[in-house]
Amino acid sequence: MKSFLHLTVFILFLGLSPVACAMPIEARVVRQEIRVRLLPERHLLEGESVLELAPGAVGTLTLSLNPAAEIETVAAAGRGAPFRRGDGRMQVDLPRTEEGAALRVTVRYRCVFNDPAPERPAVTEDPSYGVKGAITSRGSYLGSDAGWYPAPAAGPTRRTIAVSAPAGIEAITAGRRVMRKTEGRITRSVWEEAHPTGGVSLSAGPYVIEERDAAGIPLYAYFHPEDAHLAPRYLEAAAGYLRFYAAQFGPYPFEKFAVVENFFPTGYGFPSYTLIGATVIRLPFIVTTSLPHEIAHSWWGNGVLVDYREGNWCEGLVTYLADYLQEERKSAAAGRDYRFRILADYASLVGPVEDFPLRLFVGRTDPASRAIGYGKAAMLFHMIRMRIGDRAFFGALRELFRKRCFTAVSWDDLVQAFSTAAGEELSSFVKPWLDLPGGPRLALAEVAARRQGRRWQVRGKVTEERGAYPLTVTVRVEGKANRSDTALRLAGGRTPFAVATVWRPARVILDPEVDVFRLLAPAELPATVNRIKGSRELTVVVTRRCAAGGGTLSLLLRSLGQEGAKLLPEENADPAALAGRDLLVCGMPAHRELLPELPEGVSVAADGFAVGGKRYGGEEDLLLAMGVRPGSPGRVAALLLPLSASAADKAALKITHYGRYGLLVFSGGENRVKGTPPPAGGEGVVIPQGVRR
Ligand SMILES: [Zn+2]
Questions:
Q1: DSSP letters along 608-663, please?
Q2: Which comes out higher in pLDDT, residue 259 or 14?
Q3: Taking the model in full, what pTM does it have?
Q4: CATH number of 305-435
């Protein structure tokens, strides 16, 4: 999803049209041919582009192109045409043509692209790592915002891209591949888009190509030779996801689908291909997480486009339809766990300073904006689905895709589509979730049970501080072998409930299936890596036995977004002074007060550790175990126990990818164990007063 910049430019021009009489008339481009030659040794691109204008074009043609590009010639109707440049734009004066005749403008240019790609970057939330354009012998990437071709303000109706490069350097971009061959010292390929939807990106490198066909859709893997063995797994999975989403929403809207490896760690979903960095593509879970996510963007974000003026709904929808739905299809419990992790992420990562209304989300810039734009939004789609049912929910999306593919759609359009399918006006239900920051804080209060003859009567209240959300929440009363669910419509700040049972109630649970977005209380939160990422009170304690080098520790902290955290040698760490802080402790501390409450089944010794009955004592082993800090309510501690400097170095940049876990074991940088210890308690589960324990 990278169409934001382009869309803004487009809107700007639409906005100008009412005063067009005073402005030069803007010509419309019907067809564009882009021919580029890549010279990686010199980081150079030599390009020629032919733009065919709609008949009757007069006035000027405005194109955006990298300001550093050197323009060799500009011709219109076969003759040199005057042009002006400034602000990354060029304006070409068009000659008069005969009535009804098409006009062709040709621009020849050259430009160096050499943004430095990070060698070993810590994970950041900027998915581009600051690289817009780089042509190198390791690989080439030209983003749609790099200005690597002269781009008209409004996309052409058809676009062809021809790329030539030194033999063996394979290029890939949007559209159908109509030709590819190596002749002599040149490898060439030609791509054609039937529905250009904005800017276009290009990648090239020494790729090994693997191909197959998924019900008429060509599937490609463009992988570096050392990772080529991963290609079959990616292609097989991609074919399955394409089938699944096509059955859900309608035919796949592009000419091909490709998985392309990048030489720096991106995770982009472009129209008709996804660009995934080498270090990421090797992570074992990407094929079941990022891949379905990027494929689902083919329908939502790249197929049906986002009207960014009204906020970005596509990340939340894709998170729900890909990341989440994959889990729900495994089991109801896996789906519930995923929803709980969304709530836990939000509570761990979004503080009052970072919070903002969902409608203002445009793209992720840090873990907090991700928890809002992806997580909270996914929960909103879940609540809509719970309210209107699967038939109306998926039916609305199918209909929206059928009618609005390749046009920009807003939150309000989506809500309208769901309302129509459900036969119920949903805007007042959705409004507070879109327009208010945060969410409801729900708790059980005054819960008591009374025996009346052979029956039991359970009474209590559900409290909600703000009273701003039209919510129906489930209250579950559980006995030893029975349970009873009651749907409670919340009204104001305190809503009473009463449940009668013929069995002895043991406990009462609020929203047991996690169907509602709410702000969890600290005691309801599991201790996870995300708590460290979201901590505003983190101290890093380095013990004498910490095997990680200083460079490795700072790399780890940077990847967790905690580069500013204070490092303290254990001899200077006063446990009493650290009572109100979250801790990351490297190596076994001499002061046991610095240790977290270790998860069940975890034990540590001087020469190793054990998890779930298995002992780890090898040089390459590493443990990260999180828990609450005894005596420090709401605070967590992480014990980082690498058994050598190399074990720490190999796992350092991977830990951040496991944000939702609180127990991790790595061996030689490979993940061996991942788990999340359950939270200690909370206000959502209570034992009613009056019941004998
Ligand atoms: Zn996405």
A1: EEEETTEEE-STTEEEEEEEEPTTSTT-EEEEEEESSHHHHHHHTTTGGGGTT-SE
A2: 259
A3: 0.82
A4: 1.10.390.10
